[in-house]
Amino acid sequence: MTLRISHTPTRSREETFSALFGASFDRVYAFVLFRTANTHAAEDITAEVFARGWQKLRDPGDNDAAQAWLFTTARRLVVDSYRSRSTQPISQLAEVAHPQSPSPEIAALTNERLALLQRCLHDASERERDVIGLRFVARLRNRDIASLIGTSEGNVAKILHRTLHKLRDRLSAEGYRLEDGQEERS
Amino acid sequence: MTQTGIETFTMRLDAMIDRALSGDQRRDASVDDRAFEAAHFIAGTAADLLPSASVRERVWQRTQARMSTRGARWPLASLVTPSRFGAMPITLFLMLGVLVGAAYAIPLIPSIFGVIEPSAVAILQSDRGQALNLSQTVAGVTITADHVYVDSRQVIVKFTVQNPPADPGQPFNQGQQVAAPLPTGGLSLTDEQGRSYRLLHGAESPVMQGTVWKGEPLAAIYTFDASHIPADAASVTLRLSIAELRGVPGSGGVRYGVTGPWTFTFVAPVSRYL
Hints:
- The structure holds 2 protein chains of 2 kinds.
- Chain A is mainly alpha-helical.
- Chain A has helices at 13-36, 39-56, 63-84, 93-97, 104-120, 126-137, 142-149, 153-173, and strands at residues 176-179, 182-185.
- In chain A, a hairpin with a 2-residue loop joins strand 1 (176-179) and strand 2 (182-185).
- In chain A, helix 1 (13-36) packs antiparallel against helix 2, helix 1 (13-36) packs across helix 3 (63-84) and helix 5 packs across helix 8.
- The termini of chain A are far apart.
- In chain B, helix 3 runs antiparallel to helix 5 (90-105).
- In chain B, a hairpin with a 5-residue loop joins strand 7 (235-249) and strand 8 (255-269).
- In chain B, the strands form 2 sheets. A 5-stranded antiparallel beta sheet of chain B has the order 1-2-3-6-5. A 3-stranded antiparallel beta sheet of chain B has the order 4-7-8, with helices on one face.
- Chains A and B meet through helix 1, helix 2, helix 4, helix 5 and helix 6 of A and helix 1, helix 2, helix 3, helix 5 and strand 4 of B.
């Protein structure tokens, strides 16, 4: 994991936890939003993840251990939320995440891409979606993902490669093309 | 595939994904095109899931409320660690945080300044802050630290993001490289002793300006807790660091992050007038 939180002996637990929140919140929230497709659930689950972290993390300044614990807990709470919550179309997420989009054109494109991603990952397994979310949204390294989901680093790469191929095929079926660095919809 | 082959494949795929996440659209012959194209699609889309400053503030308040009712399983950690708060009971600290958070949760001025504290704008508009005019350009994006104001309660910093004069920017984005609102990542304020100042409020244009954005330089005002500053300090040396900008539009409305950091070190006088 790339982020480091400086932890000096003069920092209190409150300050260290606040720094952990600042360094980790965006990625935990985005990962939960990616997995739940529900902004209200994402806010609620993320708050719960950090509240439990406050209770249970022995040393919030141990960044590697804290990050692993936060994403493990986030994954568990996401699974729990499936049993009790309904999801909203991911096409609504961009509007909520970026309520002040600079132009209707960009907002529409953003919504379209998020809806397309949701459709293309619909047939992916829970593990495949977890790996994609942890690598691309949470931006964890493969070795950290391997540790989180209990497999080898090489297997994480295989899952990523396989899921990317599936996604590309679905994008093609949806009429999406990316050529020479430029994206086009046919 | 041999063990060496697996490791090579893993490294190449990992490097390709890193480049996709940084917005680098050059193809890599060592990774097949299908994986490359899908990786770029996800990387561009994932950036739109990142939270705004108001979401960050709202969830932090909700987290603090839950923290105050549960307590830490490791409460002794804060007592054995020397700190400014010393032996202050942890519950009193958290109750104070919840009360302050609840006060700011009241939507007094919801549409004009977003989650920003209105007094921060008033202070800067009344020229009580100190002009900095420190600019730094990283990866073609220039950030200027414009103003700072410090008193015993708060540190207010205003900065703007603008294209370098020779860069025409993105035509579909009002001539700007960075889209509005201005989502920043890894924003931190520290002092010479390495102490980190806790972020209290923040807002970015055009939320801050309350008007339709017409391509003017994007601005942000952030307020930090100043409890680290000694009561008798006449000035303080601070270091503002912005690790990443996340609203850089690419083709097809994709938003990429630009990795900094942009860092500014400055000395600010501590105001005696609250």
